[in-house]
Amino acid sequence: MAMKRYLLLFALLAILFVTIAFIAFDEVEEAVEPSLVNTPGIFAHRGANDRFNESTITAYQIAAEDGVDALEIDLRMTKDGHLVVIHDETIDRTTTGTGEVLDYTLDELKSFQTIADIGDEMTVEEIPTLKELLDTFLDTERYYIETRLVNGELRMEEPLIKLLKESDLLSEELVMIQSFSEKSLQKIQELAPELKLAFLFRKGEFNLEKAMSSDFPIIGLESSEVTMRVVNELHSEGKEVHVFFNDLDTQAEEQRRVKSFNVDGFFTDDILFTKQLLNEME
């Protein structure tokens, strides 16, 4: 009986030793790798939306004054084919109107105002077209533009590239394009191969193998999908990792966490906080 207890104790100690050794080895193997960029990018998510109505020219002007690395812009298309800057499929959440963007002509859409409670003040401003936004900043800012399918079709890519060309902005130094749609990115790649493209993955839909084997140099992830291993693996394939944050309540904590993994870019709803956080790296 004593021998059996001794053998059992020996077996348990052996298992414990192997487990500790494996964990220690794994930690060494998973040491954080350097970022692919000198300084992580700060991308103003819908402009400085903490201080003015999201996706408005004023919000982007505030972001530009803060010295961000790019203005993050969501595109929708109107009934008559104009590209407007608004995130949601509908105008219900952010404007005085209701209904889908695609159901309105540009003139009809301009009859509504964006609204937001900023502090104790209700602020209003019209929905901008992409052309109005580009005309405001020209080549003084960098643009990080999100495309999407329109009713499942590739409809915004050609007018977008045409507008960028007319505005003399068709340059990797000035524009990056991001999308959850591979088809949209592939179309942009055909039309403007000089632009840098970011393949986005929604929360819960990230596939590391797909991301690593994609043709796109940037991978955009929701922060909860970001681990040291994921970042290291993507970096090993030469792909930048740009992180977005769905939960405003945990965004600061999550930015601190992913910063330790040397990610390459932050989509932020609090520019000043992110700037302070990244300044701590210097």
From TrEMBL:
Q: Which InterPro entries match?
A: GP_PDE_dom (IPR030395), PLC-like_Pdiesterase_TIM-brl (IPR017946)
GO MF terms listed in the record are: phosphoric diester hydrolase activity
Gene Ontology biological-process annotations: lipid metabolic process
The source's domain of life comes to Bacteria
Output the Pfam families linked to this UniProt entry: GDPD
Q: Which residues form the GP-PDE domain?
A: 40-278
Q: State what protein this is by name.
A: Glycerophosphodiester phosphodiesterase
Question: Which species does the entry assign this protein to?
Answer: Peribacillus faecalis
